[in-house]
Structure formats: C-alpha cells, structure tokens
Amino acid sequence: MRVSWDIMRDGLPIIIVNLKTYEQGYGADGFDLCKIMEEISIEHNVNLAAAVSAIDLVDYSDNLKIPIFAQHIDGINYGSHTGSILPEAVRYSGAIGTLVNHAECQMNWEDIEATINRCRELGLLTVLCTADVEATKRGAALNPDMLAVEPPELIGGEISVSSAKPEVIRDSVSAVNQINPEIPVLCGAGVKDQADVSKALSLGSQGILLASGVVKSSEPRKVLIDLIQGL
Ligand code: G3P
Question: How far apart are the C-alpha atoms of 175 and 133, rounded to whole Å?
C-alpha cells in the first residue's frame, strides 16, 4: 500500500528512522526492519516512518503501510543529469517525501531552495535537516513541510541532543514559531531511548529523526517499543 499525503499531515508526533547506508538498512534486512516498524505503528497507533535508499523506495513503498521517505533528492528537472535523483522518479516510486540537506548529504542554500520548490510542485513532503538554530531559522523561511535540527557532532554518538544540547531544540522551536508556526520541528542525533524522546517533545519538538539507535541494534523491536513510550 502506498501511504497518502493526508495520512502524513495528521501524523504528528512522529519518529522517522533513517536507514542511511547501514549494513542492516537496505534490501531484505532493511525491509524486515521497516516491517517491524509497520507492526508497531499499527499495534500501538503511533507514527513511524522510514527514510530509505533510493534503490529501495519502490519496493518498500509498495509493500509497507508506513510512510517512506527518500534520504536525498536533487532539485533538477528532466534532462542530462546523470546520477541525480529526479523528483518525479521519487514521486513515481510511491515515497511520500524526502529528507533534504541531511548532515551527511549537505547542499548549498540555492540547491536546498530548488529542491524544496520542486518537491512542493510534485506534492512530495520535505524534511529539511539543519545543524543549528541559525540554519533552522534560515530554513524555515523556505517553508519546508518539516524541519529536523541535528547537531552534527552528536550524530551517531551515545549522547543525545536532548541531553547535550536541549537549548538547540528549544531555541529552534521558538525561532520557527516566530517565522511560521505551522512548520513542525523535529530533532535528532544520539537519540536512544524514551527519555530522550520525551525530553525532546517537552522542549517543543514534534518528532525525532534517528538512525543508529534503531538500525544498528540487535533488538530493534525492543528499542522501538521503548522509544515510542516517549511520544
Ligand atoms: O538522520 C538521523 C541521524 O542523522 C541521527 O543519527 O545515529 O545519531 O540517531 P543517529
């Protein structure tokens, strides 16, 4: 089943699991992980989504009942752009949207704006990733569907943004509220358990973008069940 835009718009708070290019995060293993997320999402009535490799978008979107995001997209039009990820192709894949400017796939502001605009034209949701409060403010002015602030030095680490830099979450939320309160602010980096999630939400965040804590875990179901208790 392909998940519609409308389901997603009501889908807050949300946990988006980014499968990155982890060994466990593509093909059949990545699918099994997303299937666990689907089961938990249905059983516990919580919003879980996955950001997956471009190669897996069609398969996962066709066969899973959770929203599937691309990890990256290029703000290009049809033409000679070998190797680029065409927005129309992502829409065709059944993905609901895309991360934009993830810390591991950064873009300049011109490309970020072009990508957000192309996605808007096509009805693809954008989750604009930012590194700090200043970038979050600048990004909010481009009207993405969501922002996700992630201090890069905490990504993949053991200490969460909620514990190490709560002010980044709080100040990002308050800055975005002044620019466009309709844009939900997610946060991420180092999030591992329900305490991290509930602290992030208590600071005004409306969701979490996370990766290693779930994807690299030998017990992802257990970790996810714990994480959703914080929603
Ligand atoms: O996209 C999510 C990410 O960058 C955070 O990664 O491993 O710190 O949860 P992680």
Answer: 8
Q: Per-residue pLDDT tens for 20-29?
A: 999 999 999 9
Which amino acids bring their CB within 6 angstroms of ligand 1? 18, 102-103, 150, 155-156, 188-191, 209-213
Note if 150 is an active site residue: yes
**Closest ligand 1 atom, residue 104 Cα:** 4
pLDDT tens profile 72-97: 999 999 999 999 999 999 999 999 99
Domains of the chain: 10-229 (3.20.20.70)
Percent helix, strand and coil across the chain, each to the nearest 5: 45, 15, 40
Dihedral of alpha carbons 192, 147, 40, 70, sign: negative
pTM of the model: 0.96
Determine whether 182 is an active site residue.
no
- What whole-number distance in Å separates Cα of residue 162 and Cα of residue 178? 22
